[in-house]
Amino acid sequence: MNQQLAGFAPAPVAARMENHGNHMLKVAMQTGNDLLARVGSMVAYEGFVQYEPNPPAVRQIAKDWMTGEGAPLMKCSGDGLLYLSDYGANVVVINLNGDAISVNATNLLAFDAQLTWGVERVKGLAKFAGQGLWNTKISGQGWVALTSRGKPIVVDCGGGEDETYVDPDALVAWSPNLKVKGKRSFKAQSLIGRGSGEAFQMAFSGQGIVVVQPSEDSTDRLRVRG
Q: 41 φ, ψ to 5°?
């Protein structure tokens, strides 16, 4: 039986964050290199790892989180291997290496605690969504893990004059330097989106990428506050 299960054993550690299959994240934990992760995402760990749900630093930074109830994050610290997942969603690992990314909070699984991050309103959408949509911007040197309901596609906006349009229910993340605006098309409301009731899209333009998931479940959309 051990031989039959051998193919599912973890591979040797090669990086701070790695995929174990498509639906699980493996994090190499080290003392002094803390991690912020979605509360409830831990499925297993080896070694000595401690957890602090919604620590003070998180509450202070995320006081304007889209739910108004604080960020659903926990601080993980210690030495060992930590395994995270989010109800079988695909996991996407990114090494920012000095770059930045804007993430839909429902798609944020984990990120290095030393990264600079904060909750901010997406500009240009207020007239479409009351007070606007909120996202988490993360930047610096370190690792980020996102989730996607199915295998995502990464669209390169190309920097031209053409815009890339995305259903908000399917949006995972995007380059924060992109210009964002809302578009409403009643003629297409029966063709685009499944939960919005009307064809409201987000239009991106400039140099950067947009990450889109195949799911259009309204529970995965950027939350509206207002």
A: -85, -15
Q: Do the beta carbons of residue 90 and residue 154 sit within 8 Å?
A: no
Contacts of 21-25 spanning 24+ positions with Cβ under 8 A: 22/90, 22/91, 22/151, 23/85, 23/88, 23/89, 23/90, 23/91, 24/83, 24/84, 24/85, 24/91, 25/83, 25/84, 25/85, 25/91, 25/93, 25/109, 25/110, 25/145
> How many CB atoms sit inside 10 A of residue 87's CB?
9
Containing 175, the helix (H) or strand (E) segment is none
Over residues 144-177, the pLDDT tens digits come to: 999 999 999 999 987 667 789 888 889 999 999 9
DSSP 8-state code for residue 33? B
Cα(117)–Cα(135) distance, rounded to whole angstroms?
Answer: 10
Question: Rounded to two decimals, what is the model's pTM?
Answer: 0.84
Residues belonging to the chain: 226
Which is nearest to 33 in space by CA: 120, 110, 134? 110
Phi, psi of 144, rounded to the nearest 5 degrees? -135, 140
Residue 18 backbone dihedrals phi, psi, to 5 degrees: -145, 155
Residue 21 region, left (φ>0) first, then alpha (ψ -120 to 50), else beta? Answer: left
Distance of CA 168 to the CA centre of its chain: 14
The answer to whether 146 and 103 are in contact (CB under 8 A) is: yes
